[in-house]
Amino acid sequence: MKKLEERVKTCRKCPLGELRTNAVPGSGSYESKIMFIGEGPGYWEDQKGLPFVGRAGKVLDELLESIGLTRDEVYITNIIKCRPPNNRDPTEEEIKTCSPYLDMQIDLLRPKIIVPLGRHSMSYILKKFGFEPEPISKIHGKTFEARTLFGKIVIMPIYHPAVALYRPQLREELERDFKKLRTLLDDLL
Ligand code: URA
């Protein structure tokens, strides 16, 4: 995984590679059985080369802490590894070019649980494993079981932690989904 992360740091496969300050491969434990996947780096992530270190990251830290986890115990990454200008949504083309890195990270980590954060990540992961994406408001907190060469993966999409910043009423949903995640972890590990 370390080697792959190093490769990502020097990637120039798409124009975002010229615009970024730092690529953001991912961070956390290479032994983790749970993988959180966001959308793409924002301003602070681009500055520091680490995922979820801005305001949304603070929410993610709080949610992890609420179920007794720290970010060192989990693996956190994004679908695309470089910040799009002005934090715009990633394009289909960017996702297509960058997602092989995420696919390799999944193969290397072999997680038992994948938690897509937000609709872009949910859509990519569900399609990758043969499921039909649905609105995140409808399927957050639901589980999907995927069979892979290295065993079963449970996928549980949740809202992107940033929603708690602009729609505070959704924070409760996030907290509820994290509690479900704790139960899943306790059952699976
Ligand atoms: N939002 C994301 O989707 N990923 C990050 O790393 C930070 C904010």
TrEMBL record:
GO molecular function: 4 iron, 4 sulfur cluster binding; metal ion binding; uracil DNA N-glycosylase activity
Keywords: 4Fe-4S, DNA damage, DNA repair, Hydrolase, Iron, Iron-sulfur, Metal-binding
Lineage: superkingdom: Archaea
Entry coiled-coil feature ranges: none
Domain Uracil-DNA glycosylase-like residue range list: 25-179
Its EC number(s): 3.2.2.27
CDD domains linked to this entry: UDG-F4_TTUDGA_SPO1dp_like
Cross-referenced InterPro entries: Type-4_UDG, UDG_Type-4/5, Ura-DNA_glyco_family4, Uracil-DNA_glycosylase-like, Uracil-DNA_glycosylase-like_sf
GO terms for biological process, alphabetical: DNA repair
Catalyzed reactions per annotation: Hydrolyzes single-stranded DNA or mismatched double-stranded DNA and polynucleotides, releasing free uracil
Family recorded in the similarity comment: Belongs to the uracil-DNA glycosylase (UDG) superfamily. Type 4 (UDGa) family.
Protein name, entry field: Type-4 uracil-DNA glycosylase
Taxonomic classification: Archaea, Methanobacteriati, Methanobacteriota, Thermococci, Thermococcales
